[in-house]
Amino acid sequence: MNTSYLAYSDYGTTSGAEAALVGIVYLFIFLFSIAGYVISAFLLMRIFDKAGVQGKWRAWVPIYNYMVFAKLGDLSPWVILALVVATAIPILNFLAGIAIVVALIMVSYRVNAKFSREWPILLLFILGPLGQWIFLAILAFGNNPWNPAIRPAPWANSFLADKTVWNGIPVQPSQQVSGNGGPGVGGSGYGAPGYGSTPPPPAPQSYNPPATGTTPPPPATGTTPPPPPAGPVV
Q1: pLDDT of 147 strictly over 80
Q2: What is the C-alpha separation between 104 and 63, in angstroms, rounded?
Q3: Can you tell me the distance from the alpha carbon of 30 to that of 137, in angstroms, rounded to the nearest whole number?
Q4: Residue 187: what pLDDT?
Q5: Residues with Cβ < 8 Å from 142, sequence gap 6 or more?
Q6: pLDDT value of position 23
Q7: Cα distance between residue 109 and residue 27, in whole Å
């Protein structure tokens, strides 16, 4: 009886230790995720500020911050949102995860070019999240100014191109605007060049001369009145 009791007691102790270890691992993952989110949001805030994005809060809203980042990289933000939603579908989650990484590389390639940096820096993405933080930190704290006037993206004429206008986010020079939509939408966007046709000049008004009629006859001449009679000569 004592042997069985000891065996059962040892088994219970082992299970408790494993549960505690699993709890520590999950706590570490949770804290690491929070720290990673704070670092990413802070770096994106710096990049947004350089790119002329209004509102620092945009960098701290999950998912939406990368939708804004996509717009700066000439990629439709709705593509990012659709891929995030697809990761919740059991059949598509694996492929959607790969597609998100590819989309982020595409966006980073464009943003990197607008900071006048060479493409090999994108090789940092091979290092996973750490490499992405290093990449964002280089853009956020580098001295290179933001210059969006670069050649159009290879996907500029496809459904991947950004065609939305969000208030407070500059419209990129190569962006083909087709309408308004998205969070914080309104107007033509902050810092956007004027898109639309120039209003035509007012049509010249035709001059209509007054209608000509018969020239009125001159006033009738009457008989010249006789001179007054001369008075008596003194």
Answers
A1: yes
A2: 12
A3: 23
A4: 41
A5: 115, 117
A6: 83
A7: 34
CA distance 157 to 140: 29
Instruction: Name the residue among 97, 96, 108, 99 with its Cα closest to residue 43.
Output: 108
Residues in Cβ contact with 185 at an 8 Å cutoff, skipping those fewer than 6 apart:
164, 165, 166, 167
- What is the four-CA torsion angle of 27, 29, 34, 37, rounded to 10 degrees? -170
Q: What is the pLDDT of residue 49?
A: 96
Contacts of 77 (CB under 8 A, 6+ apart): 67, 68, 70, 71, 162, 164, 182
Nearest CA to 77 out of 162, 173, 153 is that of: 162
The token duo for 202 is 């007012």
Structure-block tokens of residue 221: 């001449």
Provide the terminal-to-terminal Cα distance of the chain, rounded to the nearest Å.
Answer: 182
Q: Which residues pair with 174 in a beta bridge?
A: none
Would you report the helix, strand and coil content of the chain in percent, each value rounded to 5? 50, 5, 45
Q: Pick 195 or 109 by higher pLDDT.
A: 109
Token look-up 């930190």 returns 137
Rounded to the nearest 10 degrees, how much is the dihedral formed by the CA atoms of 199, 203, 204, 207?
-160
pTM: predicted TM-score of the whole model, two decimal places: 0.69
pLDDT for res 69: 97
Which two tokens mark 109?
């390639």
**Residue 231 neighbours by CB under 8 Å, 6+ apart:** none
Rounded Cα distance between 151 and 173, Å, is 9
Q: How far apart are CA 29 and CA 189, in angstroms?
A: 39
Rounded alpha-carbon distances, angstroms, from residue 6 to 16, 17, 18: 15, 17, 18
